[in-house]
Design a protein that fits this description.
60s Ribosomal Protein L30, Chain: A; Pilus_CpaD
Length: 238
């Protein structure tokens, strides 16, 4: 083989290797989010938490709403950020004295639950429709979980207008959004959606008894008889 032919062969091989190296990486699989968790992921963000307290009678808080206020104040003390805002309706058909007395009772309950006076901000809000009952509005900011986007979006037709989409046999875009949104709104601690909790303390007495039963060839499970005379508490205590 002459030198010219050898050089041409090396040049052709180098060109082939360069062509292979310049190819973009090949991606396999679906390029769109395939699962509901990928399409509608959970995100944590600060958003307002509110409670409406309706004025009843001459300005007292009935037991039903008192429980709601106490639970709301407990949540504020545990998760709230910033101040507790008490918005008072102005221009409604409710007498001003009843509104003020309800406000003072709500403020008193907040102080009883350990909310500082400087943490309470009272502000008026206009009533658009005087024919509708206007409540006192309690609100604060806290970290809450939600889905990243809005539910109810339909970027593709569910019918047969797009044969290529139907051939992929994938879930429609809005699938699972409402379910995940409901889960996010019901979870007590949003951090639980990000990571699991630390392992709690074990019951060393029960574990030791179970290991002893296994070593001696006994069944470590709890004996339960549905005879109407035994209770779960008595059986677990054995």
């Amino acid at each position: 083989m002459t030198r010219i032919a050898f050089r041409l062969l090396l040049l052709a091989a180098s060109a082939g290797l360069a062509a292979c190296a310049s190819r973009p990486p090949v991606t396999t699989g679906s390029i769109t989010p395939a699962t509901a968790a990928e399409r509608h992921p959970f995100v944590l963000s600060d958003s307002p938490r509110s409670l409406d307290v309706f004025v009843t009678g001459t300005g007292h808080i009935d037991p039903r709403q008192a429980d709601d206020v106490d639970a709301f104040l407990t949540e504020y003390r545990r998760y709230g950020r910033g101040v507790l805002v008490l918005e008072v309706p102005r221009g409604s058909q409710v007498p001003g004295g009843a509104v003020e007395r309800t406000l003072e009772r709500v403020r008193g309950r907040a102080l009883t639950w350990g909310v500082g006076r400087r943490e309470i901000v009272v502000a008026p809000y206009p009533v658009a429709n005087v024919a509708v009952s206007a409540p006192l509005r309690l609100s604060f900011q806290r970290m809450q979980a939600k889905v990243a986007g809005d539910c109810g979006l339909w970027p593709q037709d569910l019918g047969f207008s797009d044969p290529a989409l139907n051939a992929r046999n994938e879930n429609y875009w809005n699938f699972g959004c409402a379910t995940r949104s409901n889960i996010a709104s019901q979870v007590a601690d949003p951090v639980d959606l990000v990571r699991g909790r630390q392992e709690g303390r074990i019951d060393s007495v029960t574990r030791t008894q179970n290991l002893t039963d296994l070593r001696t060839g006994k069944d470590p499970s709890t004996t339960w008889k549905q005879d109407g005379r035994a209770s779960v508490k008595n059986q677990v205590g054995q």
